[in-house]
Amino acid sequence: TQLLEQSPQFLSIQEGENLTVYCNSSSVFSSLQWYRQEPGEGPVLLVTVVTGGEVKKLKRLTFQFGDARKDSSLHITAAQPGDTGLYLCAGASGNQFYFGTGTSLTVIP
Amino acid sequence: SQTIHQWPATLVQPVGSPLSLECTVEGTSNPNLYWYRQAAGRGLQLLFYSVGIGQISSEVPQNLSASRPQDRQFILSSKKLLLSDSGFYLCAWTGYSSEQYFGPGTRLTVT
């Protein structure tokens, strides 16, 4: 079993603050995705990173894939209440996907 | 565009009863399909995946089973539910860039 550990597990911050979520594994993945999930709904894809060292930016969100393709980080600048949700990373290996343990983010207005 | 449907949205079943959850995908052909289970506020546990009709791979030994009778239909079943089968069940298909697209999920409560 290929495990993906996310940290922190829970995060509660004030609106306007910055934060970083980490996703770590001892396994190498062909690609890594980040998803956000709201209660009672399915996860929604935010980004896919493929190349070691790759950095992608989506507005206030910055995603980085580790050089060795074993880890990733998600940085949010100036968090807003709409960023609240469960953030999940997932590593792809062949036809299988291995999901991280999840980071529950609450942004307080 | 592609869409994925799951039903029912919620289900309350007694211990020992059977289960059938259905997932269908529209707008794509021969997708890889997946069933996951999620505990509250946690990550997703892969249960089954399928790369084609009649082809099922199981990740976790349990009292659940899956079938793929048609190209875009994926069914999760059980003959006798256990309390530990409660959870949020998600179906997904894989896009061309190895990303996953999820259905709305089924909340199963076994009483």
Give a description of the structure.
- The complex is a heterodimer of chains A (109) and B (111).
- In chain A, strand 6 and strand 7 form a beta hairpin.
- Chain A is mostly beta strands and 109 residues long.
- Chain A is globular, with a radius of gyration of 13 Å.
- Helix content of chain A is 0%, strand content 56%.
- The N and C termini of chain A lie far apart (39 Å).
- Chain A has no helices and eleven strands.
- The mean pLDDT of chain A is 93.
- In chain A, strands 2, 4, 5, 9, 10 and 11 form a six-stranded mixed sheet that branches. A five-stranded antiparallel sheet of chain A has the order 1-3-8-7-6, with no helix packed on it.
- In chain B, the strands form two sheets. In chain B, strands 2, 4, 5, 6, 9, 10 and 11 form a seven-stranded mixed sheet that branches. Chain B has a four-stranded antiparallel sheet with strand order 1-3-8-7, with no helix packed on it.
- In chain B, a hairpin with a 2-residue loop joins strand 7 and strand 8.
- Chain B contains no helices and eleven strands.
- The N and C termini of chain B lie far apart (38 Å).
- Helices cover 0% and strands 59% of the residues of chain B.
